TrEMBL record:
This is PAC domain-containing protein. Signal peptide: none annotated. Residues 91-155 form the DUF438 domain. Residues 6-62 form the DUF1858 domain. GO terms for cellular component: plasma membrane. PANTHER family: BLL2471 PROTEIN-RELATED, DUF438 DOMAIN-CONTAINING PROTEIN.
Amino acid sequence: MSQPIIDLTRSLYDLTEDYPELIPILHEMGLEGATNSILRKTVGRKLPVAEGLKRHGISLEEAKRKLEAKGFCVVSEDDPSKNRKERREQLKEIIRDIHRQEDPAELRERFKDLLRDVGATEIAQLEQELIQEGLHETEIKSLCDVHAAVFEEGLNNQVVEEVQGGHPVHTFKKENREIEKIVAELGKLFELLSQSEKTPAKHDLVEWQQLHERLCEIEKHYSRKENILFAYLEKHGVNAPPKVMWAIHDDIRALLKEVSKFLQDHQPNNQEVKQMIERNARPALKMITDMIYKEENIMFPMCLDTLTDVEWAEIVEQSAEIGYLVNPDVGWKPVEVPEGAASLKQPHIGGGALGGSEAEISFETGVLTQKQLNLLLNNLPVDITFVDEQDRVKYFTFGKERIFQRSKAIIGRQVQNCHPPDSVHIVEEILEDFRSGKNDNAKFWLHLGDKYVYIQYFALRDEHGNYAGTIEVSQDIQGIQEIQGEKRIL
């Protein structure tokens, strides 16, 4: 169990108000005024405990030794680097205590001195370090709401940078306000339906369906995070928090999918409606609301601390294709303008040596300009993604009707981080089989809305048989399956 952490640079009054058990201990150590309530509330408001002890001839080392013998961990300003390390370890131990099922309220009380100034970036770093040290991501995910509750005071005390309309964080928050309105309307409707003993009125079910469809637009919000924002965080070495958050997105998606299916399948009776509300619909609303808190108090402040103006500008450029729940405001402009950030819709065409004509690329079976090659690849009736031998995404086609969302942010991203956490083990198994030579292809097929998607993975090998990467080929085969008879050119 972690020890309570006290900071001796705090005033006598503040420290003893938070830890009244210190009063007799400090008195025994020679700080006689500690037991005098009038002195504590007057002089003690301005007197740092460390200074008071020093005046009474008690060194900081002696004070730390005695207080630690009484079960406290002491921090001060005598060794900043050591204190930072001790603080970090104590904070990680608090998270471990959470996972040992200790009472969050008791932890908040015991570590109030330490927790009052913990910010978003620090929490994310702590969770990442713990995962690197062996704590499984699913454990972090299962208790991340408790983490937020324990660190709530520090999160609420942090000063979060205000951003101008048009900045990606401003747009995410604007969407959250819209989501909150939908959640509130659904909450009122669920209250009405839960209290009724009659067969649900058709107009109530229609209203639920309409509100639910609006809520499902949250997919755009989550997709921009997963496919763009998380990719930029990973470039800065921030890997664990995005994985945890993506896993929660998938849990929300699963609940929303069950509600969608329920509302479309049949005319439910009163009992079925109540069961669906309690089993799926209300839990989804709570998870969405909790996610908004985690976004605005942990994820977005951390992103603002981490990403550059150039990166935010690139995020704006790539977000429009996925779409928004609301129209973004305008006004924000990056201080730094990204140079040479070529749009995928307007690929850079290299000039040739003669008269500015396009350079040609020679292949075994022909010659193409870069423009021709780009047109050819982007007009194939399939989506293609290339992953190199180091498992990094190096290229994807940019056709008009794409199966899966892709953004420029994934270029250079580890392919494992491009997939939902629950399916990463399958991706790793495919790549390992390709790398070892056990397999050369893998095939999957699934229904995705009105599409029937066929996904194929192929191992690439050089002339010596060495593994050189993987290509993913995806296509909608719904129309192909419906083909009958013949249609000849001649």
